[in-house]
């Protein structure tokens, strides 16, 4: 079974969803037959390539409710064993980090890519890492077993830029405008940081190749997302959504 997870490093619900999905996968009897691949998605593709404080950025976008949004996800993260330290989080354009994740997938495989994804999220949300900084990205890659010099050379190049952008464009063509979105076997999509028990049921159902009304095709997901009018909902109810004006 192949599971493609569309997410952004800068998306807190993607971090929660990753944790819950991995817990479900560890309880799934056929876990050894599941390949998990992370696909790129940018919540803010127009973000400047310079670090900005999370608190300031969120306050500019959402005003007073920004504090409550952070408090909620911090509490949910704690229940998952995840540290969200929003006082130290730096917001930056995530394209370079997505290119690094694609590099890890192409050169070392899906398992290494998953480890790197986890390292980037932990460092971004809990350690004040700048995901647009080449040196810090190279350190993160080395921490999960990649050759630091090779990674540093890659990050100085434009390699995989076109491929990653094509993947992002494909996500929009599929109708994905909110993350995380989990696509199973290229046929069924589940949106949001669902509970672990939900992910486990989905894995079992897909493995049995049975129809389930709770699973949605990418086309159906697109219709639901458009109907929701969500763009201004930010990171709420299990997903982070891209503002309509920034969508491709």
TrEMBL record:
Residues 3-202 form the DSBA-like thioredoxin domain. It holds the Pfam family DSBA. CDD domains: DsbA_FrnE. It comes from the Bacteria. InterPro entries: DSBA-like_thioredoxin_dom (IPR001853), Thioredoxin-like_sf (IPR036249). This is DsbA family oxidoreductase. The lineage of its organism: Bacteria, Bacillati, Actinomycetota, Actinomycetes, Kitasatosporales.
